[in-house]
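Person: Please work through this fold.
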Amino acid sequence: MEKKVIFATSNEGKMKEVQSILEDLGMEVLSMKEAGLQVDVVEDGTTFEENAVIKATEIQKMCGEIVLADDSGLEIDYLNKEPGIYSARYMGEDTSYAIKNQNLIDRLEGVEDEKRTARFVCAIAAAFPDGTVEVTRGTIEGRIGYEEKGSNGFGYDPIFYVPEYGCTTAELSLEQKNEASHRGKALRLMKEIIKTKSC
């Protein structure tokens, strides 16, 4: 029977990234919806790592498979690392990212380039059937742009400018983004751990 990995998300954009990075794992990679799981885990940790572990272990207990969960967000240095772990809930969960992005751009009005530094952070936790939990972390450094650009990403991607690529993460191709992104880095580290534990 083929081993399964369930990735705790209902975000289709995120799921595309995850499946393309994990496709050579030799396991079926499913979203919660595809696995028939409907659950809302309260993430009340104080760090990205804590939230990812809470989510992964909670869902692992329900399904018995390997469960991966991530918690990721945007830290803007000038705004005391806001929105941070509250990135998804910033300005309310139902607020569109166009409004959230504009709000952050407005809050940085008049702030010069070198002070607009920011990073995406992603912590990924894997809860295994034997009760062990592993955590990896990836980051990508950049700056907050002056307007939204690009349509390839989701969330805060259109305002996150990466100097080494000369564009926002929403203007990168899926391949480039998986190579450079915080989630791509954390996932590749996790992929190696899963391979080691599954042999």
Remarks:
- Helices lie at 12-22, 48-63, 97-107, 174-180, 182-198.
- The first strand starts at residue 4 and ends at 7.
